[in-house]
Amino acid sequence: MRNLVSVDDMPREWWDGLYSRCCDIIAHPGDYADSCRGKIQASLFYEPSTRTNFSFQAAILRLGGSVFGFSDPKGTSISKGETLADTVRITATYSDAIVIRTAKEGAATAAALYSEVPVINAGDGAHLHPTQALADLTTIAQKRGEIADFCIGICGDLRYGRAVHSLIAALVKFKDVRFCLISPGELKVPRYVRELIYINGLKLYETDSLAESIGDLDILYMTRIQRERFQNPAEYERMKGVYILTKKLLEGARKDMLVMHPLPRYGEITPDVDSDPRAVYFQQAHYGMYIRMALLYEFLRLPKQMPPPVADAAAEITCGNPICITQTELYLPPLISVKDQKRCGYCDKEAGILI
Ligand code: NCD
User: Which residue has its alpha carbon closest to ligand 1 atom 7?
Assistant: First the structure.
């Protein structure tokens, strides 16, 4: 693998190698302190971030490398109208890997078309967040010993939560994972994500009640209602606060259930849960740094490689998703999903392609 834009294409053996590297880094951090000396990571953060940006920065620094970039594109030529393709081409010549977060869906896929260095998707709109999924897998493996045979309840905003989409795409690669998706009807997972569960023959139960399902879960993955993704603020107002995990509610859960959350939280887990030994969300953020160290360690060893020439945009093919990267970067070539001809190859939105 040269880029990490989605976990769909992550081979299981690649994960096994990455996780074993991560365990070695946790056990022997000193052995890696100089392992990426001279290597440079570029951080292109078009959207706010605490954990993802800081943990990637901490990761490269702990490997002995360096980092440059922005956490707000206002100070760069992007504010003068520079295209994503040009920003990526230039950044790639100065660095050895690009970590990119955007509000536009499919932006990391687009960036990889123009980059001679590996591109890592640090979150693209409401679409995907593959390195959060790696952090989540690491947490489950560390806490349960293996990633197999459990029931995971994923609760909250499953429609706009990109961490959820990548977590499901990652977990379908493992044995006997049972999904309990807990959300209001309006915030259910997109079809392309639900299909991954069916295609892999895994069990799925959907409900809108956290209280009724909490007792059946081995893992509860809470998520924030994604205020910034709602087109209609009134709809957000109706949804906010719909699920709140309290110490009292946790009384109905199994004694060894894990409580996970990608963070930040905004009221959906009350602070009195933090001291419960089942709450592992702060450790989850910590493991995120180690798995990102393992990822950078692997990617920074790859030689630079010019990408193949990119075809011209075909005017008659456009995606109907208003926040797809193709809506603003008009030169991008059309990409149809290899898995489903009716889906956009950048943002995965079904029925998004108008021909
Ligand atoms: C998530 C994100 O940005 O998608 N945060 C993170 O990276 N840990 C989750 C969120 O913002 O709700």
Answer: 52
CA-based angle 280:286:291, to the nearest 5? Answer: 115
Q: CB of 132 closer than 6 A to ligand 1?
A: yes
Ligand 1 site-directed mutation target among 263, 268, 289, most atoms within 8 Å of CB? 263
CB-ligand 1 contact for 52 (6 Å cutoff): yes
Domains contained in the chain, CATH given: 7-125+288-299 (3.40.50.1370), 130-279 (3.40.50.1370), 314-355 (no CATH)
Confidence of residue 314 (pLDDT cuts 50, 70, 90): low
Judge whether residue 287 has pLDDT over 90: yes
Determine the residue of 45, 46, 51, 166 to mutate for testing ligand 1's pocket, defined as the one with the most ligand atoms within 8 A of the Cβ atom: 51
The dihedral over CA atoms of 196, 223, 11, 288, expressed in degrees to the nearest 10, equals 180
Task: Identify the band that residue 352 occupies on the pLDDT scale cut at 50, 70 and 90.
Answer: low
Q: Which amino acid is at 300?
A: L
Instruction: Report whether pLDDT(351) > 70.
Output: no
Q: Tokens in use for 214?
A: 């909490």
